[in-house]
Amino acid sequence: MASPAPRPLARFVAPGLLLLASLALLGGGLLPGRAFFYRDVLHYYWPTQAARFALGGLPQWNPFHQGGLPFLADIHAGVLYPPNLLFGVFSFPTAYALLLVLHHFVGQLGLFVFLRRKGLEELPALTGTLAFGLTGYMAGLSNFGPLASGLTWTPWLLVGLQSQLLPMRKLAVLSILIATQIVSGDPQSALYSALVAAVYVAWFPERKNQLVALAGAGALGLLIAGVQVFPTLALLAESTRGGSTVSYLANWNLHPLRMLEFAFPYPFGEYLGVPQFWAWFMVKGPGSIPFAVSVYLGVTVLVLAVLGAKRDRLTGFALSLCALGLLLSLGERSPVSFLLEHPPFRFFRYPEKYVILIVLGCAVLAASGARALVNGPSKKRLIPIAVAAAFMVGALLFAGIAQESAQGLFASLLQAPNPQAAIGPLENAASSVGTSLFFMATMGVLVALALKKPGSRTVALGVLALVAVDLLWTARKTVWLGPASLYDEPALAARLKELAGSPPTRLFRMDKQLKSSAPPSRSPEGLVNLREWEAGTLKSNLSGVFGLEEVSSYGAVELQRWKALMEVFAQRPQKVAELYAGCLLLTSTMVAGAIGPGEQLLVSEPSLRLAVTKLTECPQRLRTVTRTTAVADMNEALARMASGNVDTKQEALVEGGTTKTYGPAEVGNVELGPRSARARVVAPAGGTFLVFATNTYPGWTATVDGNEVDVRAVNGALMGLEVPEGAHQIEFTFTDPAFHSGLQATLAGVLLLLLLLFVSRRGPDTQEEAPAPT
Fold this sequence. Notes:
The protein is built from 26 helices and 20 strands. By secondary structure, the protein is α+β, with helices and mostly antiparallel strands. A hairpin with a 2-residue loop joins strand 16 (700-704) and strand 17. The chain is globular and about 100 Å long. The two termini are 41 Å apart. The model is unreliable at 1-6, 409-422 and 765-774 (pLDDT under 50).
């Protein structure tokens, strides 16, 4: 007789299944020649990580994008997040996919541990965990790596919160988790954790102690992450995120009709599949596709949620999460939309993101439901499920009749060019409802088996498998992969590096002109073709990957001054290029024939419909002017430049400066570093004024022959200084203004953390164990 498997090995079965689930969903990105590429992956995350390792050390300034930006302060870069070191070891596509899989697995494992410690058996806990990890929303996060990284630690915060650790040790663990989320690249995940933790504390005992632990951990976590938090707060004050209006509140809200998608997979069609999505009126945001590509929770998960809901604390916790998530995700349509206009909610874009709270709440309910089903579900709970199934059958019959009527109607109308276009949505809806009905019917078989034989392990395994198939079948359609060749250096980059010269000139990409040349992308193949074209024409931030500096590029955080200047000259982009010493212009061959007298054609790529021109009189990064005009502030400077009466090649509008005229000067020996600039300036009698064509930002200092001088804001967004008569060595350098205070906060936080851990060692490892109420 064979001996049973050693018990220790059984402990690895559940983690192994969860790892398989993560690989089944996201592992395609680890295959040779395949890569994630959609949305911010190619255009933002890749350039950000490329810049991080190109700059080396602890980068504080990013010279590659938007005429210069703070780098450490850009919290989305995740400079201090240890797992991001993988980008320095592997190629970007491999590191990105590896981080996705590992974080997805660790996040699932955290929820599994939480559910197990709430008294749920292994298979129900696994079912609830898969109901969390394989949903359409979680699959969509494959396009937002830092968001997936931060969210990973929210379930672990619940594990720490409900643990029986001593107060000091619990506070230390929670603070580490919060600090980790803050530096992960997605600070909003810390807000998710705060909301989840607040709901948990509201439903479970020892509220006072738990609140004290949370408040202390939140404060200590912020302190530990101070070297990231302090620079980020300083950047927030200077960026468009710190403005008085919340312009993005109306973008990417959860449309009420999309709540149908909670139970039905793609009821309005697929965004990149067949049948094609048709309800475009529901999408309002910076892109044509919603932030949450899918919000499918799973019809099997919802059935389990109904079976698992009961009068206990765990159900109250889960339902409260669902209600809170729904209210926040509706955005401007929500009765609590006013909350989104105030801190901390106002700092984060796109209310659709709060669907994650609904996902987590339903996952907890599904775990309870899986247990209830296996043990023999309440027949009363089966009534609403049966009613829902009957409505779904009725909907299928109605769709069939409606299709026949529509076909008959169009057959009688000779002018109907495409009858199929009108009945397509009905066919799609019928297919979606039919799919859900199939899974409900299969669940019905398992319910019948459970009623006949309560406690059956076969039924428990069947429920687990059914939930996995239901969710994975839909979620896989949301994970889009392309060829890894998208990450190869395009031929244009090498050519532009030759043309940039030394000291290098910047690029200015004419996005609006080039957009008209972009290929269509309403299919997976079309999307890959579009990304190949975008990579070939260096869209967004891609020039920075290859060491080229750009004036116009996409950023999750934009400086107010840079944004205002871009808006003033939206119809005259060449003027912005001139101000920032962006001599090379990337435009479309469709408009290259309209090149003005101040430009010359350098490169023409008919296959990409792209042309590269150069300003024939492009100023240098460090240049002098012959006169200055005093202005009160940025608004006055921009208004003067918008009038068209300012020759910025010869005149500088100086905030808080003086109106003065200068003779011609010489600038030589220019050296440009990642966060510095040096030059030798020979000024005539009366001195001169030197303009540095880089974004002005607190932290930039300047010296003349080693003596510090005042740096002035120039032309609304740039900076400059007055140089006295004679030959002088000028140097600009940047140190993040909040770096040292943030570093001090981090050191204080780490010392306090070590003290807590030391004090906690004087007591037992845990408090006296007590069963946690559910």
